[in-house]
Amino acid sequence: MKILITNDDGVESEGIWALARSVASLGKVTIVAPKYNKSGTSGSITFLKSLEVEKQKNRIKGVECFSVDGTPADSVIIALKEICKNPTIVLSGINNGYNLSRNIMISGTIGAAMIANTQGKKSIAFSSESFESIHNHHLQMMINRIVKECISENIPNEIFLNINFPNAKDEKIGHAIETGPENSNLSITTDQVSKNEYKILLSQLQPQKSNNSKDKTDMKTVKNGLVSITLLNGNNFSQHKSKNTMERILKVANI
What we know:
Layout: E1 2-6, H1 14-23, E2 28-34, E3 53-56, E4 64-68, H2 72-83, E5 89-96, H3 108-118, E6 122-128, H4 137-150, E7 160-165, E8 176-178, E9 184-185, E10 188-194, E11 197-202, E12 206-207, H5 218-223, E13 227-231, H6 239-253
Parallel strand pairs: 1-2, 1-5, 2-4, 5-6, 6-7, 8-13
Antiparallel strand pairs: 3-4, 7-13, 9-12, 10-11
Helix pairs in contact: 1-4, 2-3, 4-6
């Protein structure tokens, strides 16, 4: 069983190594990720120049690590074609900060998983409110159970999940529930640094008013201390197939 792991925070990120530790017992794990932080690059791919790949120091026995001087999507493509061919599943994260609602459109964490999914691979993006909780034993065991179920034959190859964990430094992680993206505004502004320099700033998501306070949205879920699991390519499944898929994943997540 081969598992490919990537992210958008770079190969030095705590989150990618925490994710590797969480699933190392499930198969051969290979990390291929950007050399530097590439947050906010979505699924962008570099076409106009060659990309340097370097083997990095292993922090976990048996886990090979490679850096790519490009985007998260670049890392996935090079991994699938050259380094870790035909993995059973592609995992992206653990991202430092939520990937919820409309910000998934610009997230490199989501973009990497999306590109993997377009290549016919099962994929999951993981994000946490902060890195305080990524070493939480309960969180890592939930990740292990979810990935173990997803690599089974019970889950269709088209599966593409976005999973967000609330901050839970020491205590047991909250229950996981199926969610949909919050209907929110993505506020993007600019700041003039000098005469000819500008910086693009992304502010917090602002939820729009909902007629139903009981809606199971990703933002409401993590705010209430629960784990949000969103099926991003649900339109590819029949309703019955999608329901069975989520039922299996939620069952193992909430053991």
